[in-house]
Fold this sequence. Notes:
The structure holds 3 protein chains of 3 kinds.
Chain A: E1 10-19, E2 22-32, E3 37-42, H1 48-56, E4 61-68, E5 71-72, H2 78-83, E6 86-89, H3 101-108, H4 116-125, H5 127-131, H6 142-153, E7 160-164, H7 172-187, E8 192-195, H8 199-205, E9 208-213, E10 216-222, H9 223-228, H10 230-237
Parallel strand pairs in A: 3-8, 3-9, 6-7, 7-8
Antiparallel strand pairs in A: 1-2, 1-4, 4-5, 9-10
Helix pairs in contact in A: 3-6
Chain B: H1 2-7, H2 22-38, H3 41-72, H4 79-94, H5 98-102, H6 106-136, H7 143-165, E1 170-171, E2 181-184, E3 187-190, H8 191-213, H9 215-225, H10 227-232, H11 237-263, E4 265-266, H12 270-285, H13 290-310, H14 315-329
Antiparallel strand pairs in B: 1-4, 2-3
Chain C: H1 2-16, H2 18-22, H3 31-50, H4 54-80, H5 87-105, H6 109-134, H7 139-159, H8 161-164, E1 170-171, H9 196-219, H10 222-232, H11 234-239, H12 244-270, E2 272-273, H13 275-279, H14 281-294, H15 300-326, H16 333-336, H17 342-356, H18 360-368
Antiparallel strand pairs in C: 1-2
Amino acid sequence: MAETSAEPLLKLESVHTHIGPYHILHGLNCEVPAGELTMLLGRNGAGKTTTLRTIMGLWQASSGSIRFDGRNITTLPTPDIARSGIAYVPESMAIFSDLTVRENIVLAARSGPVDTARLDWMLGLFPALKRFWNLPAGNLSGGQKQMLAIARAIAEPRRLLLVDEPTKGLAPVMVRSMIEAFRALKAAGETILLVEQNFHAASQLGDNVIVMEDGLVVHSGTMSDLVADKVLQRRLLGLSLDAHQ
Amino acid sequence: MSDVAADAANPPLLPRSRTDWLPLILVPVLALAVLPLIGDVSSWVTLTIAGLAMGMMIFLMASGLTLVFGLMDIINFGHGVFISLGAYATLLVLGPLAGWASANSVALNLALLLLCIVVAMVLTGLVGAVFERVIVRPVYGNHLKQILVTMGGLIVTEQAIHAIWGASPIPIPLPETLRGAFVLGDIVMERYRVVAIGIGLLVFAAMQLLLNRTRIGLLIRAGVENPEMVEALGYRIRRLFVSVFVAGSALAGLGGVMWAFYRQTLTAGMGMEVMVLVFIVIIIGGLGSVGGCFVGSVLVALVANYVGFLAPKLALISNILVMALVLIWRPQGLFPVARR
Amino acid sequence: MTRISNSAKFDETRRQGPAIWLLSSDTPRSLLLSLILIGIVACLFAAPFVFSGSQPLSTAAKICVFVLLVASYDLLLGYTGIVSFAHTMFFGIGGYGIAIALERLGASWESVAIGLVSALALSAVLAAIIGLLSLRVRAIFFSMITLAVASAAAVLASQLSTITGGEDGLSFQLPAELRPAFRPLADPILGVTINGRILAYYLIFVVTVVIFLILLRIVNSPFGRVLQAIRENEFRAEALGYRVVAYRTAASVISALAATVAGALMALWLRYNGPDTTLSFSIMIDILLMVVIGGMGTLYGAIIGATLFVLAQSYLQILMGLGSTALAGIPLLPDLIHPDRWLLWLGALFIVSVYAFPGGIVGHLRRNRSP
Lengths: 245, 340, 371
């Protein structure tokens, strides 16, 4: 399904990010090919969230370059990066709890009203949202908020979705439906960069995988290779599937 | 927008509103509760009208400040100078059009008031834009410096008013037909207060419409809650913020005009004097909440009027007492604004 | 890191002797700054002998009082990082404490003591209540609430005229030893006859010096370090286990006490206290100007700021008057440099200071010569 063009959709080259006095990303190199789902794995504090925020321009890279669709977006302000076609779902979900579910979606569709077909598709992915359509989003449960946050990201066509730990803190039932939703998004041809702690969930979804440690990429390749190579898993992630057996 | 709404045919399963009624009920309950204490209805009506008029004027002056704070986490201690500036702007109109003020014509008098408001809002809006660019923009994210630098802006602008219009108080006339009172039986309602209530309600209604029914309103409400996410959705929140700052300054100018005709005297410090009430009101309302600001304004003003009638000695500190009681009840104000 | 260099400094202190010990090892750290400070203190010390007439002595007394007032404010603003607008309230409480006691109880030292102690107690209680109530939520509440409380206090003082004398204020007699007619020595010293007025001046001078040194000790103590840690990063300090509210409230109480003493000194010097001399909001603005222009978080900035400001208040206007008359005829310009507009220019300097010289004059002098 991936059209193998010369350049990947997103490409980070030796990106450094500082937050205040702390040096978080130490020259990150990675790529996200179009039309595929790339998992970003790593321990707490490895720099995954910082990577997403740096791509989004919420934190400014202090050096290096970020190219999106052949265009340098390293120093663009956040709104311009969003307008170039990147959607962001932060770990906190950041839904607007004072606004209704509908208003959250309306706001996310920046270029105009959502057409009916797209809306049906979205609400088909997350039926719960339809039920609470005119309620303040603050009333939703954690899982429903996560659904809204993702629905907001796809309220209008985007080139790339950045999603930070969508299964965190969710009940197993919710995790399963979340995985289903991402499968559906993949099938629809979306390009996704997904941060995940849960290797089990990640291994079911990812086409590609990037593993980070201490602000650097320590491994990148296809997910199937990593799933097959238990030794590599243990070395990279510490908690391999074997450890639980 | 409409076809999105049309699509949601399913009735919601949870109760529709999360609206917090308690603070809203508080005001009428309070007003009715003091009725037996005051004893006679006509005094009660007079006091209530006076309190409402006062509350509307405070609301006009405070609403911009609370929005600016909510949206960009900026606290502008120089906000009071826009009130003074709006008040002095009436001179620009009253000078050439003094005849309109003394004319015994409701139309001319109201036109004059409207013209004063327009001129004041344009002037304060412009100065607000400069203030934002020069004074406020370099100190985003640093409350300490914001307080200091906006105080500096206040000092300089107040002194500039002195330099331009002189340092001594200037009396201004209330337009002819706005003086005096409407008398209904034994109930006396001062005309200007009724006008002030009308204008205040009009502005409040317009703000509610804007905030709840337009995309800009959605953006402002979303921005108050999480400006970063609004940017991540592709909106340039800076531009939004500048507009809100300018609008907030213009509203303060509008409040300044109403306040000026109420006092009928201009002083450069008049804005800073009323800022004490403004701060109390936005703290009571919940920093960033327009609705809270409205309820807080009416609450404070009504209490001040009732207490002034029932126990004049206490009136001096009634504002502080109201604030203390509200903060003990709800430490974040009546309508706490959810933030990241 | 701070802690290590600090203890190193203390070892140095033991070698360097009492002068450094008095300054709690927190020396001016700049030659020029040291010279200016020594100059100011020497002038203040010798004021009764160097300058003739009552006007310069009053200016010197005012400088002393404001040094104390501004230094106590700096503890709050510069070291703790919170902005209070109630500092004049405590200043006023000190003034009214002395005025009411001396007016009601007669011109004795007992009255002074009773007035001062009750004023200190009232200030401490008020500062603690305001701090505990408003610092609990957000530091920015503190600024707004202190503004509200201070204005209520000003209204109270002018309305409760049976106690405070209302807008007119209170005039009173000083104890005999501080009156101009008192002559402790038969012969003049250096050609100046020592009288009660000069004794009063030295009382103010000595109290100011002592409390200033105590404040210097406080900001350099472990307590002061915690305050600065909170200022730099409230959440980290909280996470390290420091009770931020308690520390901030304590700082605001200490600061209020020192301001109360300053108010008492002011009243003693003027033999009068009223809303305009201690309570008005314009004094609050003056304090802000002095502390920021002098240099926040340095304490020495208080000396520079207060001196500069009081001198400007007294003498800049004369200069501007000259300029204004010279420019007569040009529109607006003479109005802008009219003597009454001196605050306009200090206000502009204030804004520039906040942006360009966050450390004020002291910070700027220190930066020029790295420590």
